[in-house]
Structure to design on (378 residues):
């Protein structure tokens, strides 16, 4: 495909694209070596490349089409107890209080920090990134983050209690992205890329894969820490053999219609035919477990969640604390953080039911879950 060509685009939308989103997508369609673009129904505006977009190239890697929170994803696991265990405000309050200690939003102090798996301590591609790991990455391991990251206890249709954890590579992902963007070649229109056959391209792929491992280990340790809280309060155990694990910010070499592509997903989940995934709603809405249909036009991808309807600035302008409390009726959360969480209000997100309906060609519903208790870092 020549630089003047425009990559084919396939989309599954709940509403027409607004002009800003369309312009950003058109820019990546025209970028050098881009072969295929798929737009998910949770698409929304973000710097350089929109969230909810899948990009396929033949041999150039675009770090901006992966984003900063490399490896961010979802871990969903059932408990061996029913969700009705949270009928008591005393129990819910106790769990929320313990979660803030067991799963910090930002970082541990050095005496309390949890050591990551040995493989996470392996070298990154540059001493600056190794220094970032020891300066921030180790302190942030097993922490949740802020914004749309969360841990949520949910009820399925059978009344079983589930855990859903949404977190990523913390400070390490942005550090890796920014380091490699400085070494990338300009492709015009603000986009930068790395040749996969170059030393710089191989270094980015090494570090991005490392970040995916860090993020997956981070979610796993968060789940272990939450299991400890519920073990103490409710004698509950996670059923790890039933876990669903996926991430939605990555680049990977895949074969599609006999073509080898480097598939970039930014806010999009990889889900092949028969594979399982998890689609979170907002903090006040239902979530879904789904199974892939293997749609080729979507490069075997799916939305990664509800997707923002309003920017954080717009949400803070339009949503009051009272609005958030009303939207969270019947769901346990830390009311002391209501003011700080206004930009995470359910009304700031798209309707997850509309997102799922729009991508019936991509996935089928396996399970519907409703929030019981939501924990976010303020």
């Amino acid at each position: 495909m020549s630089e003047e060509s425009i990559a084919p685009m396939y989309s599954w939308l709940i509403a027409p694209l607004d002009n800003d989103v369309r312009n950003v997508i058109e820019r990546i369609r025209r970028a050098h070596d881009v072969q295929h673009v798929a737009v998910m129904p949770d698409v929304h505006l973000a710097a350089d490349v929109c969230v909810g977009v899948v990009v396929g190239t033949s041999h150039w890697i675009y770090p901006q089409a992966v984003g900063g929170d490399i490896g961010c994803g979802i871990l969903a696991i059932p408990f061996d107890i029913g969700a009705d265990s949270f009928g008591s405000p005393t129990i819910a309050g106790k769990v929320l209080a313990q979660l803030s200690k067991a799963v910090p939003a930002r970082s541990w102090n050095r005496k309390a920090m949890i050591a990551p798996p040995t493989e996470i301590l392996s070298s990154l591609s540059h001493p600056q990134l190794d220094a970032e790991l020891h300066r921030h990455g180790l302190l942030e391991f097993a922490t949740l983050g802020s914004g749309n990251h969360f841990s949520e206890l949910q009820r399925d249709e059978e009344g079983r209690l589930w855990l859903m954890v949404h977190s990523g590579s913390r400070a390490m992902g942005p550090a890796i992205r920014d380091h490699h963007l400085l070494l990338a070649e300009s492709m015009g229109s603000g986009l930068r890329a790395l040749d996969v056959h170059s030393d710089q391209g191989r270094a980015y792929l090494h570090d991005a894969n490392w970040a995916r491992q860090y993020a997956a280990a981070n979610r796993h340790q968060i789940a272990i820490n939450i299991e400890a809280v519920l073990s103490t309060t409710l004698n509950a155990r996670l059923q790890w053999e039933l876990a669903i694990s996926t991430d939605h910010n990555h680049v990977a070499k895949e074969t599609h219609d006999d073509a080898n592509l480097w598939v970039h997903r930014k806010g999009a989940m990889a889900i092949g035919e028969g594979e399982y995934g998890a689609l979170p709603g907002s903090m006040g809405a239902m979530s879904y477990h789904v199974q892939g249909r293997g749609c080729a036009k979507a490069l075997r991808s799916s939305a990664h969640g509800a997707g923002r309807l309003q920017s954080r600035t717009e949400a803070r302008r339009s949503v009051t604390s009272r609005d958030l409390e009303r939207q969270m009726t019947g769901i346990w959360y830390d009311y002391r953080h209501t003011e700080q969480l206004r930009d995470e209000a359910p009304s700031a997100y798209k309707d997850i039911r509309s997102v799922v309906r729009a991508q019936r060609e991509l996935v089928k519903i396996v399970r519907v879950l409703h929030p019981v208790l939501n924990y976010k870092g303020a």
